[in-house]
């Protein structure tokens, strides 16, 4: 009774069920997802759509969704209901394909969305209830260590169903793997990179995006005298939330700082490089950014960028910023590149953008695991991935085959920055304690950005509290988990 009550409360108060009316209706289309059927001038911004002509044939004829034995799947699992819980802002992507999946599989899909700010808490309640309320769940990769006990390892399903796992870029394979097991497949393959508005850069005599943080200051000084009123050289997500921690890591990691001393569980973010990075970020906010940045999360930053309030920024990709109905700067040319390299002998390319990578997992208590996996494989296949990326649903690709396709280079403006960043990502720590650790970190970072605390004192506090929590959790005792490898370059070296 208690479990049922909990689930009823979750369903009625916290989960938003979306109806079939949200799905586009097509008069004629191919049997399987085909880009031309889904991507039209009605759902793709004109500045993007006009760059290429979509062919009549499939873009990815060898994709899993095209080559699976659907006759066998239908005979075995027809009539099965597969329940998906996803981030509410991403729900448009699975809705695009719901009717087509149901048609070719004979299954029924139930798709529910949960608001991003409460994803962790609400999913934890649902999982802990022990009732199979969902089969497939989209969740943030950073929470995998907490949720791992509830998810089925996927290695045997990948092998059984011939799923093309090796088509995913290594960074997103890494984020789906925990303690040597594949517990999810990639879905929204996030990264962050540097954006600039070309018209202002050219007016300031600047010919390319900054390659170093020293150049960022140089560019800002050149931009100040030429920018119109209400436009600032740059701005950042810096609210009292994990966004400020993400933004800080986009400086600290390139400066050469590490959350942990490599190869150990020793917190080390208060290194000279970490302190210098935090001071540098505050200097940029104080001197070159719009007032109010310290209240910006993702939505506020994107709104300001789309409204034309900045000449440069660090941002996730956003196809919607090319939509004239949503962005003042939609038709403007922009430069996209990997986040700048930090100064000094420890400076490196190390963009942080992996915290919000979302992944698709399958719950251990799902009564229909094979049916659920076929939906995971279908939804994460190459052509659906290409379609919901270009359609601007908030999801972005991570497959080699998608990046290799010539149409991706034409229709996905962030293409080159994405590829350049993939091998250099710096990971947010992935531990069961991460939610608690992050809450300590972003509060301290925000106090520095708002002038309430000095950088060294705040980072010392983070290190002290991290060490206390890790010690209490047994990370310094025999049998503790292996320390994480935090930088993708080190992951690649380790695998070699």
Please describe what this structure looks like.
This protein is an alpha/beta fold and 496 residues long. It has 2 domains: 2-189 and 355-422, 3-Layer(aba) Sandwich (D-Maltodextrin-Binding Protein, domain 2), CATH 3.40.190.10; 192-352 and 431-477, D-Maltodextrin-Binding Protein, domain 2. Helices cover 43% and strands 11% of the residues. It contains 23 helices and 12 strands. It has helices at residues 2-14, 35-38, 46-49, 64-67, 70-77, 92-105, 119-128, 144-147, 155-160, 170-175, 198-203, 213-223, 242-255, 272-288, 298-306, 369-379, 382-390, 400-404, 406-411, 415-422, 434-449, 455-472, 488-495; strands spanning 16-17, 81-87, 108-114, 136-140, 177-178, 181-182, 185-188, 193-197, 232-235, 310-315, 334-337, 358-362. It has a 6-stranded mixed beta sheet, with helices on both faces. Helix 21 (434-449) runs antiparallel to helix 22. It is globular and about 65 Å long. The termini are far apart.
């Amino acid at each position: 009774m208690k479990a049922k009550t909990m689930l009823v409360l979750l369903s009625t108060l916290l989960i938003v069920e979306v109806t079939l009316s949200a799905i586009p209706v097509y008069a004629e289309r191919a049997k399987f997802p085909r880009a031309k059927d889904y991507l039209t001038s009605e759902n793709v911004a004109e500045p993007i759509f006009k760059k290429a002509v979509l062919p009549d044939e499939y873009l990815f004829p060898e994709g899993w969704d095209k080559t699976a034995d659907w006759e066998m799947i239908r005979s075995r699992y027809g009539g099965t209901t597969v329940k998906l819980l996803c981030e509410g802002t991403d729900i448009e992507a699975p809705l695009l394909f719901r009717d087509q999946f149901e048609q070719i599989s004979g299954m029924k899909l139930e798709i529910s969305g949960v608001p991003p700010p409460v994803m962790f808490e609400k999913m934890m309640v649902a999982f802990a209830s022990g009732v199979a309320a969902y089969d497939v769940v989209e969740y943030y990769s950073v929470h995998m260590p907490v949720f791992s006990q509830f998810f089925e390892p996927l290695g045997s399903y990948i092998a059984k169903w011939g799923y093309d796992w090796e088509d995913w870029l290594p960074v997103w394979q890494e984020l789906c793997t925990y303690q040597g097991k594949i517990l999810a497949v990639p879905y929204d393959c996030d990264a962050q990179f540097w954006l600039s508005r070309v018209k202002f850069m050219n007016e300031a005599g600047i010919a390319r995006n900054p390659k170093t943080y020293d150049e960022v200051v140089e560019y800002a000084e050149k931009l100040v005298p030429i920018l119109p009123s209400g436009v600032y050289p740059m701005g950042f997500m810096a609210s009292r939330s994990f966004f400020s921690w993400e933004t800080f890591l986009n400086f600290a990691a390139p400066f050469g700082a590490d959350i942990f001393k490599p190869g150990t569980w020793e917190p080390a973010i208060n290194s000279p490089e970490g302190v210098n990075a935090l001071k540098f970020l505050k200097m940029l906010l104080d001197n070159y950014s719009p007032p109010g940045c310290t209240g910006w999360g993702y939505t506020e930053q994107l709104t300001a960028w789309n409204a034309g309030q900045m000449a440069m920024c660090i941002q996730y990709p956003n196809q919607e910023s090319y939509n004239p109905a949503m962005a003042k700067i939609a038709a403007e040319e922009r430069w996209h590149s990997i986040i700048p390299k930090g100064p000094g002998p420890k400076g490196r390319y190390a963009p942080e953008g992996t915290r919000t990578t979302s992944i698709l997992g399958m719950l251990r208590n799902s009564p229909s695991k094979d049916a659920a996996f076929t939906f995971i494989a279908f939804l994460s296949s190459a052509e659906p991935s290409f379609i919901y990326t270009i359609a601007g649903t908030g999801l972005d690709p991570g497959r080699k085959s998608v990046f290799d396709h010539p149409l991706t280079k034409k229709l996905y403006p962030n293409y080159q920055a994405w590829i350049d960043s993939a091998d250099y990502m710096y990971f947010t720590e992935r531990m069961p304690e991460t939610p608690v650790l992050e809450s300590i970190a972003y509060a301290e970072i925000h106090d520095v950005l708002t002038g309430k605390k000095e950088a060294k004192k705040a980072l010392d506090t983070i290190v002290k509290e991290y060490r206390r929590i890790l010690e209490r959790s047994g990370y310094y005792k025999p049998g503790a988990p292996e320390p994480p490898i935090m930088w993708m370059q080190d992951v690649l070296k380790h695998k070699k």
